[in-house]
Specification:
Blueprint: H1 3-14, H2 25-33, E1 43-47, H3 52-65, E2 70-73, E3 85-87, E4 90-91, H4 94-109, H5 121-136, E5 141-145, E6 162-165, H6 173-176, H7 180-187, E7 197-199, H8 204-216, E8 221-223, E9 229-236, E10 239-245, E11 250-256, H9 261-279, H10 287-296, E12 304-307, E13 312-315, H11 320-333, E14 338-344, H12 351-359, E15 364-368, H13 378-384, E16 390-393, H14 396-406, E17 411-417, H15 419-430
Parallel strand pairs: 1-5, 1-6, 2-5, 6-7, 7-8, 13-17, 14-15, 14-17, 15-16
Antiparallel strand pairs: 2-3, 3-4, 9-10, 10-11, 12-13
Helix pairs in contact: 1-4, 2-5, 3-9, 3-10, 4-5, 7-8, 11-12
Length: 431
C-alpha cells in the first residue's frame, strides 16, 4: 500500500465527520465543477431495503456472460475499500483510487466555505464513481446501487435507462421515516419521468406508494407477483429452481446457486430487467447467457459458505426483513443441522426484533460485539434475548474458533448481523 493511497483513503474517511446529510445540492455542485461526468452514462439504478447487492450481482454476471463490460458502484465493502467502484467485479486499482481523489478533492473542498457545506464521505465516493465511469473507463452499463433511501440519496442525480426497487422494509427509520409508507416514499424517489421501474415490494402499503409515484411520473411499472410471475420454486442442492414469466421473457426451470426465496425474487427482478432491455433494443441478452449468469452469481457475505469443514456460513442480515430471509433459508436448506448462531449488530438498529427472529433458528445463541464506533455491546444484545441456551462472546475471534472446534458433526456455525461485522469476520477467517 503506497503512501499516496493511504493518504487518499484518509482524506475520504475524514469526511465521516460530516455524518449523513441527505440532499442533492452538494452532489449537483460537485458534478458541475467536474463537468457533469454522470450525464449520458447507460445506468441501471437499484434501490430497496434489502437485495440491492444481490440484484446488482445477478445483472453483473448476466452482462458479463453476454460479453458486455459492467461497472458497479456498491456499498459497503467486505474486503477492500476499492470494491465499491469495480468493473466486471474487479475493483479499481490503488493508483486509480489516488487519481480519483485528486480529481474530486478540489471540487469537494471548494464547497466547504459555501452555504452548502462540506460533502459527506458517501457523496465524495459517489462523485468519484461518476468521474471514473464518465471520464476514465466508460462501461457498456453501470449498475448503480442507492446508498440510503433514494429520493435524497447522492446517486439520485442521474437519468437511468431503468430503475429497480428490490424491496421495502423497516430500516434506517431514524432517517427515512417510521412507517412503511414514509420509507416507500423515499425509495420511490428514484422513479424518473417516463423511465421504467421494476418493483419487488410486496407489502401492500409500500406497493401503493410506488404505484402512485410511477403513475405520477408516467413510468411503466413491472411488479413482482403481478407482471413478474414466479412459480414452481423449489430448493435444489445448494441453490433454488423456479419458473418465471415476465412481459418479455419466459424461463422454465431457471436456477440460481444462492439460497433462499428472497434470492429467487432478486433474480426475478434481474431477469425482468434483461427482458425489458432486450425488448427495447438496448442490449442483446440471450436466454442461454441469462441462465449461465444466474448460475454463476455469488455475493460475498450473503448466505456465503466460507468453510465446509467446519461448516461456517456468513450472512449480513442487518435488519428484521433480512433476518427473516436468513431464518427461512436455514429452514429450507439446513433443517437437519444443529445451528450455532453468532450475532452482532449496530446500536442504532432495531436489534430486538432481529434477535427474536434469530432465536427461532438458533439451537445455541451467541451474542457478541466488534470494533466499530456504532456497534452495540454484547451485553445489550444479551439482555434482549430470551433464548434458553445463550452466551456472550467477549472476543468473537477466539470465540468463533472455540465454537468451530467444539461443534457436533451435524453442526453449522452461522455468523450474522451488521455487514461491518461480517466484513471483519470474513477477513479474519480467510486469513
Amino acid at each position: 500500500m503506497t503512501a499516496a493511497y493511504t493518504e487518499a483513503l484518509q482524506w475520504i474517511h475524514s469526511r465521516l465527520a460530516f455524518g449523513i446529510r441527505p440532499g442533492l445540492k452538494r452532489m449537483q455542485a460537485m458534478m458541475e465543477a467536474l463537468g457533469h461526468p454522470e450525464r449520458d452514462l447507460p445506468i441501471i439504478h437499484i434501490g430497496g431495503t434489502n437485495g440491492k447487492g444481490s440484484t446488482v450481482s445477478y445483472l453483473l454476471h448476466i452482462f458479463n456472460e453476454a460479453g458486455y463490460t459492467a461497472g458497479t458502484f456498491t456499498s459497503p465493502y467486505l474486503e477492500s475499500f476499492n470494491e465499491r467502484i469495480s468493473v466486471n467485479g474487479i475493483p479499481v486499482s490503488d493508483e486509480e483510487m489516488v487519481q480519483l481523489v485528486q480529481a474530486v478533492k478540489p471540487a469537494a473542498e471548494a464547497l466547504e466555505d459555501t452555504e452548502l457545506g462540506s460533502p459527506t464521505e458517501f457523496e465524495v465516493i459517489t462523485a468519484m464513481a461518476f468521474y471514473y465511469f464518465g471520464r476514465i473507463y466508460r462501461p457498456d452499463v453501470l449498475l448503480l446501487e442507492v446508498g440510503l433511501g433514494g429520493k435524497y440519496d447522492s446517486t439520485n442525480i442521474i437519468q437511468p435507462l431503468l430503475s429497480i426497487i428490490t424491496s421495502v422494509g423497516h430500516d434506517h427509520i431514524n432517517i427515512l421515516g417510521s412507517s412503511i409508507e414514509e420509507i416507500a416514499g423515499e425509495k420511490a424517489g428514484i422513479i424518473k419521468w417516463k423511465t421504467p421501474i421494476l418493483s419487488g415490494a410486496e407489502i401492500q402499503e409500500a406497493s401503493a406508494v410506488i404505484e402512485a409515484k410511477a403513475f405520477e411520473e408516467k413510468s411503466d411499472l413491472l411488479r413482482l407477483n403481478q407482471e413478474i410471475i414466479l412459480s414452481e420454486i423449489q430448493a435444489i442442492g445448494s441453490g433454488e429452481q423456479f419458473n418465471i414469466k415476465t412481459p418479455a421473457l419466459h424461463l422454465e426451470e431457471a436456477s440460481i446457486s444462492m439460497t433462499g426465496i428472497h434470492q429467487v425474487k432478486n433474480a426475478a427482478l434481474a431477469i425482468a430487467a434483461c427482458g425489458w432491455l432486450n425488448e427495447n433494443g438496448l442490449f442483446h441478452l440471450e436466454e442461454e447467457k441469462i441462465r449461465k449468469g444466474l448460475q454463476k452469481t455469488r455475493w460475498n457475505g450473503r448466505l456465503e459458505t466460507i468453510s465446509e469443514n467446519p461448516a461456517i456460513l456468513l450472512d449480513g442480515a442487518h435488519n428484521r426483513e433480512g433476518v427473516q430471509s436468513l431464518v427461512s433459508a436455514l429452514s429450507r436448506h439446513y433443517s437437519d443441522r444443529k445451528i450455532y448462531l453468532v450475532f452482532a449488530a449496530l446500536k442504532d438498529k432495531e436489534y430486538g426484533g432481529m434477535i427474536t427472529e434469530l432465536e427461532r433458528a438458533a439451537d445455541r445463541f451467541y451474542l457478541s460485539s466488534f470494533d466499530f464506533p456504532r456497534a452495540a455491546s454484547a451485553e445489550e444484545l444479551f439482555q434482549k434475548s430470551s433464548h434458553t441456551d445463550k452466551e456472550i462472546l467477549p472476543d468473537w475471534e477466539t470465540g468463533i474458533e472455540k465454537i468451530a472446534g467444539e461443534m457436533t458433526p451435524d453442526g453449522l456455525l452461522v455468523i450474522t448481523g451488521s455487514l461491518y461485522f461480517i466484513s471483519q469476520v470474513r477477513s479474519h477467517l480467510l486469513k
